[in-house]
């Protein structure tokens, strides 16, 4: 039975009074019977499943007269122990009651590689270097794009750079469209100016023609028209020369 704490775990050999006679280890959650003998709580409960007499003095055990020794439990908790990873190389010692604190950060604690399909055991201190070479390494893109990065595509993946490139390309395209529109507008504007000039020229020559008609001159290509002159609202028939 191994209900208590392993004797080898302690920095100094524990006092014989602290040893449970049932498990031969240091008392874990000690309880005292009516006869004053002390055992680990778990050990004496297991013992009582088979026997009802004290393992030391054979007196009958009265379950109602069992006392949990909290003070003794605390003193045992203060005893210095060695790290259970001493074999792997940890030299740390600490009070027994803080063991869980140390083991949760002990660099020599065995851990299983968290990457699916790997299953390799690695010391906590080597976890990072194993991560570098683990062929099952996978990670969601830390930029939050949702891509699952693997060892072989990780170096190529750069969603931020891709986004930046796409953004720049979009901007270039939009600028090109805007410049194109500007050029078209300029062409239309100059075309319109050209048409305006031509219209003006036509109007001018129409006026010249009317003046000639008014003066009663000119002999070629006369045509009758009843419409009033475009530039002068004169209410009379006139002749216009088409040029
Ligand atoms: Zn015990
Ligand atoms: Zn006894
Ligand atoms: Zn350790
Ligand atoms: Zn791995
Ligand atoms: Zn990404």
Automatic annotation (TrEMBL):
Keywords: Coiled coil, Metal-binding, Zinc, Zinc-finger. Residues 217-243 are annotated as: Disordered. Residues 20-58 form the RING-type domain. Residues 233-243 have a biased composition (Basic residues). The keyword Coiled coil applies. Residues 220-232 have a biased composition (Polar residues). PROSITE patterns: ZF_RING_1, ZF_RING_2, ZF_TRAF. InterPro entries: Znf_RING, Znf_RING/FYVE/PHD, Znf_RING_CS, Znf_TRAF. The keyword Methyltransferase does not apply. It comes from the Eukaryota. Residues 171-198 form a coiled coil. One of its GO terms (molecular function) is zinc ion binding. Residues 102-145 form the TRAF-type domain. A zinc finger (TRAF-type) spans 102-145. Pfam families: zf-C3HC4_3, zf-TRAF. This is RING-type domain-containing protein. The lineage of its organism: Eukaryota, Metazoa, Chordata, Craniata, Vertebrata.
